[in-house]
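Homework help board

Subject: predicted structure for assignment chain

Our instructor gave us this sequence and asked us to write out the predicted structure in token form, then describe one feature. I got the tokens but I'm not sure how to describe them. Can anyone check?
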Amino acid sequence: MEYQYHQLDNGIRIIHKQVPNLMAHCGVVIDTGSRDEGANEKGMAHFIEHLLFKGTRRRKAFHILSRMENVGGELNAYTSKEETFVYASFLHPHYARALELFADILFNSTFPEKEIAREKDVVLDEINAYKDSPSELIFDEFEEMLYNDHALGTNILGSPESVKQFSRAEVQTFVQNHYLSERMIIASVGNISFDKLVKHVQKYFGVVQTSSGQAVRKEFDTYQPQKRSEAKSNYQVHCMLGVPAYSVRDSKKNTLALLSNILGGPGMNSRLNMGVREKYGYCYAIESQYQAYSDSGNFNIYLGTDNGYLDKSVNLIYKILKTLREKKLGTLQLHRAKQQIAGQLALALESNVNEMISIGKSHLFYPKVDSLKQMVDKVERIDASQLLEVANEIFVPDQFSTLIYTASKNGG
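My token output:
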């Protein structure tokens, strides 16, 4: 079944796919994230995501958490650079329960002072734990370096200094300015008719006053390649290479996604894995990824290795990139690459919760969301010349930035 759409009078949009499953998945995605924070609000979007579960005019924290768990459901949330998502998985007869709870925490949260103080400690522990994982930390620090003082480089968690100074008034102001009805989408994948879903949404969200306002997001246009090395008390070297890339609305984004998958996607037969890890044993982890944002994006390569193999690994990476810039994929190679990414897309969307999250995020940018077949059809239309063109636009060696965490506990 194709996706179904509706918009309430207050601007809240709905996207739904009916499936005959016992479990249903539904959530509210808000078009706001860490890049929308002011100079004194670093980490605020993520902090509010925590506070949404800490009390409303009707419920205390225990009652919020128990509302879905009492019927065997799960309540979750996450924050990214550009969105905040609150969602639940539950037995399909409980749609009304889930939607009423979403409306309550999004529009009636009271942000108790006691909970704010307690949650600051929780987030500070989260920040410290994150700093203990260099293979994760380097991704955020690389984006911070790549975007160089632009809001897209902001760490989602914020810093200990910024989190400690948050006040209840500042939390309420951020919510009032960013949790706007016209920037909200309700996404659903579950066994409920669309008419019934719309009635539930109208009941709990239709009473919300219309609020509008586009996120004032400054476009990133000041890139300068940088190279940085930091001493860390690691046993391995961690390295990131990358460049700015296409936005989510760019016509070449699918081509770059396919190219990145060929280069260093999750398949063990990716060119980076075969050419650096399997052939020479130079690294224990290597991958590439393409992250698209509303008005920008970036392509990066991550490498984990020993001190003695870093230079050899990086040289090999640039040789592999050079090959993709200079040599077209053969017909059979291209066919296999398309088959591989089509299978990966199908596997990802086999999970209904993944599909619910995916369509909610996509509907932020597009009036209509592609089905799996439409996504695969777009990949099928990519030819070898287009891959070569994108490789020459993105894989330019002297435009790459590099961040290295050197290893002080390594004898290599």
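Reply (TA_rk): Your tokens look well-formed. For the description, you could write something like this. The chain has 15 helices and eleven strands. That's the kind of observation they're looking for.
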